[in-house]
Protein backbone atom coordinates (compact mmCIF):
# COMPACT_ATOMS: atom_id res chain seq x y z
CA UNK A 1 0.00 0.00 0.00
CA UNK A 2 1.56 3.26 -1.08
CA UNK A 3 1.77 6.12 1.38
CA UNK A 4 3.58 8.55 -0.90
CA UNK A 5 1.38 11.58 -1.21
CA UNK A 6 1.42 13.20 -4.62
CA UNK A 7 0.04 16.52 -5.73
CA UNK A 8 -3.79 16.34 -5.58
CA UNK A 9 -5.51 15.66 -8.89
CA UNK A 10 -6.92 18.57 -10.82
CA UNK A 11 -10.38 17.18 -11.49
CA UNK A 12 -12.31 18.50 -14.45
CA UNK A 13 -15.29 20.54 -13.27
CA UNK A 14 -18.05 21.36 -15.73
CA UNK A 15 -18.96 25.04 -16.01
CA UNK A 16 -22.56 25.62 -14.90
CA UNK A 17 -22.88 28.86 -16.82
CA UNK A 18 -22.83 27.10 -20.21
CA UNK A 19 -25.88 25.19 -21.38
CA UNK A 20 -25.07 21.49 -21.47
CA UNK A 21 -26.70 19.31 -24.14
CA UNK A 22 -28.91 16.47 -22.93
CA UNK A 23 -27.58 13.15 -24.23
CA UNK A 24 -29.58 10.15 -25.27
CA UNK A 25 -28.90 7.11 -23.05
CA UNK A 26 -27.09 5.47 -25.97
CA UNK A 27 -24.78 8.44 -26.51
CA UNK A 28 -24.20 8.89 -22.78
CA UNK A 29 -23.20 5.26 -22.38
CA UNK A 30 -20.85 5.40 -25.36
CA UNK A 31 -19.27 8.58 -24.00
CA UNK A 32 -18.68 7.70 -20.33
CA UNK A 33 -18.61 3.89 -20.05
CA UNK A 34 -14.87 3.73 -21.00
CA UNK A 35 -14.24 5.57 -17.71
CA UNK A 36 -15.92 2.90 -15.53
CA UNK A 37 -13.84 -0.20 -14.68
CA UNK A 38 -14.22 -3.41 -12.70
CA UNK A 39 -12.28 -3.67 -9.42
CA UNK A 40 -11.16 -7.11 -8.25
CA UNK A 41 -9.31 -7.88 -5.02
CA UNK A 42 -7.42 -10.95 -3.84
CA UNK A 43 -5.99 -12.15 -0.54
CA UNK A 44 -2.36 -13.10 0.09
CA UNK A 45 -2.96 -16.55 -1.41
CA UNK A 46 -4.47 -15.10 -4.59
CA UNK A 47 -8.00 -16.08 -3.62
CA UNK A 48 -10.69 -13.68 -4.97
CA UNK A 49 -12.21 -11.52 -2.21
CA UNK A 50 -14.46 -8.84 -3.63
CA UNK A 51 -15.70 -7.32 -6.84
CA UNK A 52 -16.74 -3.71 -7.32
CA UNK A 53 -16.46 -0.75 -9.66
CA UNK A 54 -14.20 2.28 -10.06
CA UNK A 55 -14.35 5.53 -12.03
CA UNK A 56 -11.40 7.16 -13.82
CA UNK A 57 -10.82 10.66 -12.41
CA UNK A 58 -7.43 11.53 -13.89
CA UNK A 59 -4.31 10.12 -15.57
CA UNK A 60 -3.61 6.80 -13.84
CA UNK A 61 -6.12 7.52 -11.06
CA UNK A 62 -9.49 5.94 -10.21
CA UNK A 63 -11.93 6.32 -7.31
CA UNK A 64 -13.85 3.51 -5.62
CA UNK A 65 -15.45 2.64 -2.28
CA UNK A 66 -13.02 1.73 0.49
CA UNK A 67 -15.21 -1.17 1.61
CA UNK A 68 -14.52 -2.88 -1.74
CA UNK A 69 -10.83 -3.07 -0.75
CA UNK A 70 -11.19 -4.53 2.76
CA UNK A 71 -8.62 -7.30 3.39
CA UNK A 72 -7.16 -6.94 -0.11
CA UNK A 73 -3.52 -7.85 -0.64
CA UNK A 74 -3.66 -7.24 -4.38
CA UNK A 75 -5.96 -5.00 -6.43
CA UNK A 76 -6.65 -4.96 -10.15
CA UNK A 77 -8.87 -2.94 -12.46
CA UNK A 78 -10.21 -4.51 -15.63
CA UNK A 79 -12.39 -3.82 -18.66
CA UNK A 80 -13.04 -5.85 -21.81
CA UNK A 81 -10.33 -8.45 -21.09
CA UNK A 82 -7.73 -5.78 -20.29
CA UNK A 83 -6.42 -5.76 -16.72
CA UNK A 84 -4.01 -3.55 -14.76
CA UNK A 85 -2.53 -3.88 -11.30
CA UNK A 86 -3.52 -1.08 -8.94
CA UNK A 87 -2.34 0.26 -5.58
CA UNK A 88 -4.16 2.19 -2.90
CA UNK A 89 -2.89 5.78 -2.96
CA UNK A 90 -5.24 7.80 -0.74
CA UNK A 91 -7.78 6.20 1.66
CA UNK A 92 -10.61 8.32 3.08
CA UNK A 93 -12.23 5.58 5.17
CA UNK A 94 -14.53 8.01 6.97
CA UNK A 95 -16.29 8.87 3.71
CA UNK A 96 -15.73 5.41 2.16
CA UNK A 97 -13.80 6.82 -0.82
CA UNK A 98 -10.42 5.43 -1.83
CA UNK A 99 -8.19 6.64 -4.66
CA UNK A 100 -6.31 4.03 -6.70
CA UNK A 101 -3.12 4.52 -8.68
CA UNK A 102 -2.45 2.56 -11.89
CA UNK A 103 0.77 2.75 -13.89
CA UNK A 104 0.69 3.16 -17.69
CA UNK A 105 -3.07 3.70 -17.61
CA UNK A 106 -4.65 6.12 -20.06
CA UNK A 107 -8.42 5.59 -19.87
CA UNK A 108 -10.37 8.86 -20.24
CA UNK A 109 -11.31 10.68 -17.02
CA UNK A 110 -14.86 11.78 -16.31
CA UNK A 111 -16.08 15.36 -16.06
CA UNK A 112 -17.50 16.24 -12.64
CA UNK A 113 -20.70 18.27 -12.44
CA UNK A 114 -20.74 21.19 -9.96
CA UNK A 115 -23.10 20.69 -7.01
CA UNK A 116 -25.21 23.70 -7.99
CA UNK A 117 -26.26 21.81 -11.12
CA UNK A 118 -27.86 18.96 -9.16
CA UNK A 119 -31.65 18.96 -9.33
CA UNK A 120 -34.00 16.71 -7.39
CA UNK A 121 -36.25 14.96 -9.87
CA UNK A 122 -33.64 14.99 -12.66
CA UNK A 123 -32.94 11.79 -14.56
CA UNK A 124 -29.65 10.15 -13.64
CA UNK A 125 -27.74 7.12 -14.90
CA UNK A 126 -25.59 4.61 -13.02
CA UNK A 127 -22.84 2.69 -14.79
CA UNK A 128 -21.12 -0.09 -12.90
CA UNK A 129 -20.67 -3.83 -12.66
CA UNK A 130 -23.59 -5.27 -10.65
CA UNK A 131 -23.01 -8.95 -9.84
CA UNK A 132 -19.96 -8.79 -12.12
CA UNK A 133 -22.02 -7.86 -15.21
CA UNK A 134 -19.50 -5.49 -16.75
CA UNK A 135 -20.46 -1.91 -17.71
CA UNK A 136 -24.18 -2.12 -17.00
CA UNK A 137 -26.25 1.07 -17.33
CA UNK A 138 -29.40 1.75 -15.28
CA UNK A 139 -31.50 4.87 -15.01
CA UNK A 140 -33.74 6.55 -12.46
CA UNK A 141 -34.28 9.85 -10.67
CA UNK A 142 -32.28 11.92 -8.25
CA UNK A 143 -34.88 11.58 -5.50
CA UNK A 144 -33.16 13.52 -2.73
CA UNK A 145 -30.04 15.45 -1.73
CA UNK A 146 -29.35 14.54 1.87
CA UNK A 147 -27.51 16.94 4.17
CA UNK A 148 -26.24 16.82 7.73
CA UNK A 149 -27.46 19.02 10.55
CA UNK A 150 -24.58 21.35 9.60
CA UNK A 151 -26.05 21.54 6.04
CA UNK A 152 -23.10 19.73 4.43
CA UNK A 153 -23.68 17.06 1.80
CA UNK A 154 -24.04 13.50 3.09
CA UNK A 155 -25.52 11.49 0.21
CA UNK A 156 -27.52 11.56 -3.00
CA UNK A 157 -30.69 9.48 -2.80
CA UNK A 158 -31.61 7.84 -6.11
CA UNK A 159 -34.18 5.46 -7.55
CA UNK A 160 -31.54 3.78 -9.75
CA UNK A 161 -31.20 0.09 -8.78
CA UNK A 162 -27.95 -0.71 -6.92
CA UNK A 163 -26.64 -4.28 -6.57
CA UNK A 164 -23.47 -5.88 -5.17
CA UNK A 165 -20.66 -5.05 -7.59
CA UNK A 166 -22.06 -1.57 -8.19
CA UNK A 167 -20.12 -0.13 -5.24
CA UNK A 168 -17.64 2.43 -6.58
CA UNK A 169 -19.47 2.93 -9.89
CA UNK A 170 -20.43 6.23 -11.47
CA UNK A 171 -23.69 8.17 -11.21
CA UNK A 172 -24.08 10.57 -14.13
CA UNK A 173 -26.47 13.36 -15.02
CA UNK A 174 -28.19 13.61 -18.42
CA UNK A 175 -25.19 15.54 -19.77
CA UNK A 176 -22.81 12.68 -18.97
CA UNK A 177 -21.19 14.46 -16.00
CA UNK A 178 -20.33 12.58 -12.82
CA UNK A 179 -22.47 13.60 -9.84
CA UNK A 180 -21.85 10.69 -7.45
CA UNK A 181 -20.22 7.36 -6.64
CA UNK A 182 -22.82 4.62 -6.17
CA UNK A 183 -22.23 2.99 -2.85
CA UNK A 184 -25.00 1.25 -0.95
CA UNK A 185 -28.64 0.21 -0.69
CA UNK A 186 -30.84 -0.14 2.40
CA UNK A 187 -31.94 -3.78 2.47
CA UNK A 188 -34.97 -3.19 4.62
CA UNK A 189 -36.60 -0.39 2.60
CA UNK A 190 -37.81 -0.60 -0.98
CA UNK A 191 -35.82 1.31 -3.62
CA UNK A 192 -33.80 3.47 -1.23
CA UNK A 193 -30.41 3.66 -2.95
CA UNK A 194 -27.59 6.13 -2.42
CA UNK A 195 -24.45 7.61 -3.95
CA UNK A 196 -21.66 9.65 -2.39
CA UNK A 197 -21.38 13.24 -3.71
CA UNK A 198 -18.81 13.53 -6.51
CA UNK A 199 -17.49 16.85 -5.19
CA UNK A 200 -15.96 14.86 -2.30
CA UNK A 201 -13.48 13.24 -4.71
CA UNK A 202 -11.21 16.30 -4.91
CA UNK A 203 -10.92 16.28 -1.11
CA UNK A 204 -9.76 12.65 -0.80
CA UNK A 205 -5.94 13.27 -0.96
CA UNK A 206 -6.02 16.08 1.61
CA UNK A 207 -8.36 14.18 3.94
CA UNK A 208 -6.22 11.05 3.67
CA UNK A 209 -3.08 13.00 4.62
CA UNK A 210 -4.90 14.68 7.50
CA UNK A 211 -6.20 11.33 8.80
CA UNK A 212 -2.71 9.85 8.64
CA UNK A 213 -1.23 12.82 10.50
CA UNK A 214 -3.95 12.56 13.13
CA UNK A 215 -3.25 8.89 13.67
CA UNK A 216 0.47 9.52 13.97
CA UNK A 217 -0.11 12.32 16.49
CA UNK A 218 -2.52 10.21 18.52
CA UNK A 219 -0.05 7.33 18.55
CA UNK A 220 2.78 9.54 19.80
CA UNK A 221 0.74 11.27 22.54
CA UNK A 222 -1.36 8.37 23.81
CA UNK A 223 -0.87 7.40 27.44
CA UNK A 224 -0.03 3.93 26.26
CA UNK A 225 1.84 3.84 22.96
CA UNK A 226 0.28 2.12 19.97
CA UNK A 227 1.28 -1.52 19.89
CA UNK A 228 1.35 -3.96 17.05
CA UNK A 229 -1.27 -6.58 17.88
CA UNK A 230 -0.18 -10.17 18.40
CA UNK A 231 -2.16 -13.40 18.33
CA UNK A 232 -5.70 -13.17 16.98
CA UNK A 233 -5.83 -10.35 14.42
CA UNK A 234 -8.18 -11.39 11.63
CA UNK A 235 -11.81 -12.32 12.33
CA UNK A 236 -13.54 -13.59 9.20
CA UNK A 237 -17.33 -13.91 9.20
CA UNK A 238 -19.83 -15.24 6.68
CA UNK A 239 -22.82 -12.94 6.09
CA UNK A 240 -25.79 -14.77 4.63
CA UNK A 241 -29.12 -13.42 3.39
CA UNK A 242 -31.37 -16.37 4.09
CA UNK A 243 -34.16 -15.05 1.87
CA UNK A 244 -31.99 -15.12 -1.28
CA UNK A 245 -29.26 -17.55 -0.23
CA UNK A 246 -26.58 -14.97 -1.11
CA UNK A 247 -23.48 -15.05 1.10
CA UNK A 248 -20.32 -13.00 1.35
CA UNK A 249 -17.18 -12.80 3.44
CA UNK A 250 -16.90 -10.02 6.05
CA UNK A 251 -13.53 -9.38 7.69
CA UNK A 252 -12.67 -7.36 10.77
CA UNK A 253 -8.88 -6.94 10.77
CA UNK A 254 -7.17 -5.75 13.96
CA UNK A 255 -4.44 -3.34 12.88
CA UNK A 256 -3.20 -1.88 16.14
CA UNK A 257 -4.03 -1.17 19.75
CA UNK A 258 -4.01 2.22 21.47
CA UNK A 259 -4.36 1.92 25.21
CA UNK A 260 -7.49 -0.16 25.77
CA UNK A 261 -8.80 0.48 22.25
CA UNK A 262 -8.52 -1.96 19.36
CA UNK A 263 -8.42 -0.40 15.89
CA UNK A 264 -9.92 -2.39 13.00
CA UNK A 265 -10.13 -1.87 9.22
CA UNK A 266 -8.09 1.34 8.86
CA UNK A 267 -9.88 2.94 11.79
CA UNK A 268 -13.38 2.29 10.46
CA UNK A 269 -14.18 0.22 13.58
CA UNK A 270 -12.91 0.75 17.12
CA UNK A 271 -13.55 -1.72 19.95
CA UNK A 272 -12.56 -2.10 23.58
CA UNK A 273 -11.30 -5.24 25.21
CA UNK A 274 -14.27 -7.55 25.61
CA UNK A 275 -15.91 -6.47 22.35
CA UNK A 276 -17.54 -3.17 23.32
CA UNK A 277 -17.89 -1.04 20.17
CA UNK A 278 -16.60 2.54 20.48
CA UNK A 279 -17.30 3.56 16.86
CA UNK A 280 -18.26 1.85 13.62
CA UNK A 281 -18.37 3.93 10.43
CA UNK A 282 -18.82 1.15 7.84
CA UNK A 283 -21.71 -1.27 8.31
CA UNK A 284 -20.08 -4.17 6.47
CA UNK A 285 -21.73 -6.79 8.69
CA UNK A 286 -25.25 -6.19 7.41
CA UNK A 287 -27.99 -5.99 10.04
CA UNK A 288 -25.46 -6.85 12.78
CA UNK A 289 -23.69 -3.53 12.20
CA UNK A 290 -26.56 -1.47 10.80
CA UNK A 291 -28.85 -1.60 13.86
CA UNK A 292 -26.32 -2.43 16.60
CA UNK A 293 -27.14 -1.01 20.05
CA UNK A 294 -24.75 1.65 21.38
CA UNK A 295 -21.66 -0.17 22.64
CA UNK A 296 -22.46 -3.40 20.81
CA UNK A 297 -24.96 -6.24 21.09
CA UNK A 298 -23.06 -7.91 23.95
CA UNK A 299 -19.76 -6.56 25.31
CA UNK A 300 -19.19 -8.59 28.48
CA UNK A 301 -20.21 -11.98 29.79
CA UNK A 302 -23.83 -11.62 30.97
CA UNK A 303 -25.11 -13.24 34.13
CA UNK A 304 -27.27 -16.38 33.70
CA UNK A 305 -30.95 -15.44 33.48
CA UNK A 306 -30.21 -11.71 33.24
CA UNK A 307 -32.41 -9.45 31.14
CA UNK A 308 -32.42 -5.82 30.10
CA UNK A 309 -34.18 -3.33 27.84
CA UNK A 310 -32.50 -2.00 24.70
CA UNK A 311 -34.31 1.10 23.44
CA UNK A 312 -32.25 3.22 21.11
CA UNK A 313 -32.13 5.04 17.77
CA UNK A 314 -29.71 4.63 14.86
CA UNK A 315 -29.35 7.27 12.16
CA UNK A 316 -27.92 6.44 8.73
CA UNK A 317 -28.23 9.32 6.28
CA UNK A 318 -31.97 9.88 5.72
CA UNK A 319 -33.00 6.68 7.50
CA UNK A 320 -33.81 6.62 11.21
CA UNK A 321 -34.12 3.20 12.87
CA UNK A 322 -35.78 3.02 16.28
CA UNK A 323 -35.39 -0.24 18.16
CA UNK A 324 -37.49 -1.31 21.15
CA UNK A 325 -36.07 -4.62 22.31
CA UNK A 326 -35.96 -6.81 25.40
CA UNK A 327 -32.79 -8.87 25.89
CA UNK A 328 -32.81 -12.15 27.79
CA UNK A 329 -29.84 -14.44 28.50
CA UNK A 330 -30.88 -17.89 27.31
CA UNK A 331 -28.22 -20.58 27.71
CA UNK A 332 -24.58 -21.59 27.32
CA UNK A 333 -23.16 -24.00 24.79
CA UNK A 334 -20.09 -24.69 22.66
CA UNK A 335 -19.55 -23.57 19.07
CA UNK A 336 -16.72 -24.67 16.84
CA UNK A 337 -14.90 -21.89 14.94
CA UNK A 338 -12.19 -23.21 12.67
CA UNK A 339 -10.09 -25.48 14.86
CA UNK A 340 -11.35 -23.99 18.14
CA UNK A 341 -14.19 -24.96 20.42
CA UNK A 342 -15.52 -21.82 22.09
CA UNK A 343 -17.88 -21.57 25.02
CA UNK A 344 -20.68 -19.18 24.06
CA UNK A 345 -23.56 -17.50 25.87
CA UNK A 346 -26.73 -16.94 23.84
CA UNK A 347 -28.76 -13.77 24.33
CA UNK A 348 -32.16 -13.40 22.66
CA UNK A 349 -33.58 -10.01 21.67
CA UNK A 350 -37.27 -9.50 20.85
CA UNK A 351 -39.48 -6.48 20.28
CA UNK A 352 -40.10 -4.04 17.45
CA UNK A 353 -38.19 -2.05 14.85
CA UNK A 354 -39.47 1.22 13.39
CA UNK A 355 -37.95 2.54 10.16
CA UNK A 356 -38.40 6.23 9.30
CA UNK A 357 -37.12 8.03 6.19
CA UNK A 358 -37.66 11.62 5.13
CA UNK A 359 -39.56 12.18 8.36
CA UNK A 360 -42.18 9.58 7.38
CA UNK A 361 -42.65 6.15 8.93
CA UNK A 362 -41.75 3.43 6.43
CA UNK A 363 -42.90 0.54 8.56
CA UNK A 364 -42.90 -1.00 12.01
CA UNK A 365 -42.30 -4.69 12.39
CA UNK A 366 -41.79 -7.33 15.07
CA UNK A 367 -38.07 -7.98 15.43
CA UNK A 368 -36.13 -10.96 16.77
CA UNK A 369 -32.39 -11.47 17.07
CA UNK A 370 -30.12 -14.02 18.74
CA UNK A 371 -26.53 -13.30 19.67
CA UNK A 372 -23.88 -15.88 20.63
CA UNK A 373 -21.09 -14.23 22.64
CA UNK A 374 -17.74 -15.95 23.34
CA UNK A 375 -16.16 -14.56 26.56
CA UNK A 376 -12.77 -16.17 25.79
CA UNK A 377 -12.23 -13.92 22.76
CA UNK A 378 -14.59 -11.10 23.80
CA UNK A 379 -16.59 -11.21 20.57
CA UNK A 380 -19.98 -12.07 19.13
CA UNK A 381 -19.36 -15.19 17.07
CA UNK A 382 -22.84 -15.66 15.66
CA UNK A 383 -25.79 -13.36 14.99
CA UNK A 384 -29.23 -14.05 13.56
CA UNK A 385 -31.96 -11.48 12.85
CA UNK A 386 -35.53 -11.84 11.62
CA UNK A 387 -38.12 -9.17 10.80
CA UNK A 388 -41.16 -9.64 8.59
CA UNK A 389 -43.16 -6.50 7.91
CA UNK A 390 -44.82 -4.77 4.97
CA UNK A 391 -41.60 -2.96 4.01
CA UNK A 392 -39.11 -4.40 6.50
CA UNK A 393 -37.83 -7.76 5.31
CA UNK A 394 -34.82 -9.10 7.22
CA UNK A 395 -33.70 -12.71 7.53
CA UNK A 396 -29.94 -12.96 7.77
CA UNK A 397 -27.10 -14.43 9.77
CA UNK A 398 -23.49 -13.47 10.46
CA UNK A 399 -21.22 -16.28 11.65
CA UNK A 400 -17.54 -16.30 12.58
CA UNK A 401 -15.81 -18.91 10.42
CA UNK A 402 -12.11 -18.25 10.93
CA UNK A 403 -9.71 -16.64 13.41
CA UNK A 404 -6.08 -16.18 12.44
CA UNK A 405 -3.01 -14.10 13.10
CA UNK A 406 -2.74 -12.72 9.56
TrEMBL record:
GO molecular function: serine-type endopeptidase activity
GO biological process: proteolysis
Keyword tRNA processing: no
InterPro entries given in the database record: Chloro_Bact_Ser_Proteases, Peptidase_S1_PA, Peptidase_S1C
Secretion signal, residue range per the UniProt entry: 1-19
Gene3D superfamilies assigned to the protein according to its UniProt record, in alphabetical order: 2.40.10.120
Keyword Lipid biosynthesis recorded: no
Lineage top rank: taxon: Bacteria
UniProtKB keywords: Hydrolase, Protease, Signal
Stated name of the protein: Trypsin-like peptidase domain-containing protein
Lineage: Bacteria, Pseudomonadati, Pseudomonadota, Betaproteobacteria, Burkholderiales
Amino acid sequence: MSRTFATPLLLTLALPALAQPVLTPETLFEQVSPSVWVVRTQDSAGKPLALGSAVVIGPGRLITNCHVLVRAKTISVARENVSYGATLEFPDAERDLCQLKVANFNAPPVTIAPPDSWRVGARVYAIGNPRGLETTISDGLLSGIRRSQQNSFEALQITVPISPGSSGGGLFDAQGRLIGITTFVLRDAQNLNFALPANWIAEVPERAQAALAKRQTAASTAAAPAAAPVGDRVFEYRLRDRMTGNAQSVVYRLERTEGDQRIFNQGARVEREGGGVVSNRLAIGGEFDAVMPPGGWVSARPEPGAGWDARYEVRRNDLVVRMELRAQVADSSTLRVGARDLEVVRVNFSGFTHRITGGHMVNSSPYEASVWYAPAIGRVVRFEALARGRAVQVNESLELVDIRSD
